[in-house]
Amino acid sequence: xxxxxxxxxxxxxxxxxxxxxxxxxxxxxxxxxxxxxxxxxxxxxxxxxxxxxxxxxxxxxxxxxxxxxxxxxxxxxxxxxxxxxxxxxxxxxxxxxxxxxxxxxxxxxxxxxxxxxxxxxxxxxxxxxxxxxxxxxxxxxxxxxxxxxxxxxxxxxxxxxxxxxxxxxxxxxxxxxxxxxxxxxxxxxxxxxxxxxxxxxxxxxxxxxxxxxxxxxxxxxxxxxxxxxxxxxxxxxxxxxxxxxxxxxxxxxxxxxxxxxxxxxxxxxxxx
Length: 272
Fold this sequence. Notes:
The chain has 2 domains: 68-135, membrane protein fhac (Ubiquitin-like (UB roll), Roll); 138-271, Rossmann fold. It has 5 helices and 12 strands. It has helices spanning 27-65, 84-91, 103-110, 187-198, 236-253, and strands at 73-77, 116-124, 128-135, 138-144, 147-152, 157-160, 169-172, 207-213, 217-222, 227-231, 259-261, 269-271.
């Protein structure tokens, strides 16, 4: 005999049971449950974020204050004229926290010394700072009025000059006031070095000094009292050839010449 379509099939062990669908909560209850779960989830996320921030701050405070990271060793290289103590004092890194160091600031302080052309500072864990400097090289003595300065190859006046020096002395006839750390034109020093190598080292034609005017450039003064104006030495080989030819003619004809100006190429000027 057939079963009614609405009848529930009999389970072989449980017998007859009616299978009723699970009760579905009202829509309002579902919304309240979802809202509750969203609130506590957002609260948990906010708590985790605040905890992470506070933990980061605590770690940073520890790292930036822990004594084990204080700088206990400063390595210095590249110095020849400046002492290690001068460089370390000027950098101001000894005893400071390695991670909190202002390395650009240390480099800037090193550059305030006129001898320092360039400077770098690097951290080395756990407690070392390595400083490398490049010093300026002296090229001449710059004299203005009664003041004498040691002049570097880039025109920086690095320190007061000693009375006795093997470097060429350039007398600034403009007498512009200067001070240590100031700058003057670098060209005259390089030109003076070249002239000393090219001209005689002894006798009346030997160069014993140099003079400088902004309007004339560099002038070489010989032991015999002759002044030779080279200006900026833009064509030094031609200027030297012209000077030697004129000097030979002056000697041969015994001309009363006290100054030879070779700044104008093929038109040199002779002045009594």
